[in-house]
Amino acid sequence: MQAGTQGRRISVLTNMIKIVFESNFNIKAMHYDVKFDPDKPKYIKKPAFAALREAHFPKCWPAFDGRTNIYSAGNLPFGKSLSTEVTFFDEERQKDQTVKVTMEKVNEIDMSWL
């Protein structure tokens, strides 16, 4: 008996697609941990992170989960860690707030398997 000859054919639909990357694709993604002091709710962390990004790496657009994780395609331009205060406008309270933000690189993710 030869494999694949006894059963009937079926169609399988998957949610996978072929992805083609250019030769300059960065195969290392960076994972950073971020902390806010004092700790803030998610709706405050997003504008605080936006103010941090604009002030310290305006040409980079890392992904922020709104809690404690940031992912970027390559290193962010501050080395292994960054600790600073940022001021941003709190829409709910209609006033500026200042929060201390600390970011630390915790992992390099190998994307070459993609």
From TrEMBL:
Domain of life: Eukaryota
Protein argonaute N-terminal domain ranges (all copies): 8-112
A Pfam short name: ArgoN
The protein's name in its UniProt record: Protein argonaute N-terminal domain-containing protein
Source species of the chain: Microctonus aethiopoides
